[in-house]
Amino acid sequence: MLNKWLKKKGLKAACMAAGLATAWGGGEAEAASNKPFGAVAETYRVSGTITPSRELRSVYVATYFRNGSSERSILHPIGVVVPGQQTTVFQFDVHLWEGFLDEPGISQGYTVYGLYDDASNGVTVGLDQTNGQTAVNNSLTWPQYFGTLSYIPTENQVAGWLRNGDSELTWLLGLGINGYEHFSVGDEFGQALKLVDFSGAVDNGSAFAEIAITPEPMTFLLVGPGLAVFLRPRRPQSK
Predict the structure, then answer these.
(1) Inter-axis angle of helices 2-16 and 168-178, nearest 10
(2) Domain presence at residue 44
(3) Enclosing domain of residue 28
(4) Dist CA 80 CA 168 (whole Å)
(5) Which candidate among 21, 83, 172, 177 keeps its CA 20 to 30 Å from the CA of 74?
(6) How many domains are contained in the chain?
(7) Stated pTM of the model
């Protein structure tokens, strides 16, 4: 039990370390730890869609990556307002150590957070299809789904984090992805999420995200000059 508690506290501390509170238009909140000595960064592109049934505000996509030696999480702002009954497309880059996603025991995933009722702190969370449907079928409130332990944030706390772009949101995702608690948050990349409005869980549409490594910069360097040479007008030859 003590070891489990330490894991939770260690995860929270890691997610808070180097976390940057972000304002709209101010970029992302990131947290990283334990960069391997001599590691080279690789760039991955996260791309996806959010299709809520009802309008969302203060919308973020949170991503989380963890292997045996290090972890990384990013909170990416999507928009102050994401319209309902429409599909909003998003795309952003994530920098990971070379070979990070190839290591055994990797845990990774994403979720979407937003406010469906700004006035009353109503929070929308992206859940995997199974748990999302269970929450909706049983009209679960926030405490019923997430529990009431002191270190688990309330819906009001999460609403405040969303307004401030607080990187604590990635900690909540990490707990759900790693199975440290009885609840689940988000799902692996390539799996669709069900957007659930708490409290009294109501279905609010869907979201999807996938991740792929971006081409090496050298590829563009090679292709660029090649095209330039190919398109350059032929010079008159001297006789």
Answers:
(1) 140
(2) no
(3) 2-37+50-86+106-207
(4) 19
(5) 83
(6) 1
(7) 0.77
Give the Å distances, CA to CA, from 60 to 49, 97, 102, 181.
Answer: 12, 24, 27, 22
Helix (H, G, I), strand (E, B) or coil at 67: coil
How many Cα atoms occupy the beta-carbon half-sphere of 19 within 13 Å?
23
With vertex at residue 236, the alpha carbon angle to CA 235 and CA 237, rounded to the nearest 5 degrees, is: 110
Across-strand partners of 51? Answer: 206
Identify whether 72 is part of a domain: yes
Q: Residue 57 contacts by C-beta under 8 Å, 6 or more apart in sequence?
A: 80, 81, 82, 114, 115, 116, 118
- Can you tell me the distance from the alpha carbon of 112 to that of 64, in angstroms, rounded to the nearest whole number? 12
Q: Which residue shows structure tokens 């309902």?
A: 84
Does residue 96 sit within a domain?
A: no
Q: pLDDT by residue (tens digit) across 134-171?
A: 999 999 999 999 999 999 999 999 999 999 999 999 98
Amino acid, res. 217: P
User: Do 68 and 103 meet the contact criterion of CB atoms below 8 Å apart?
Assistant: yes
Q: Angle at CA 182, nearest 5°, toward 8 and 105?
A: 60
List, for residues 17-42, the tens digit of each pLDDT value: 333 233 333 346 555 455 555 667 88
Q: Which two tokens stand for residue 206?
A: 């869907």
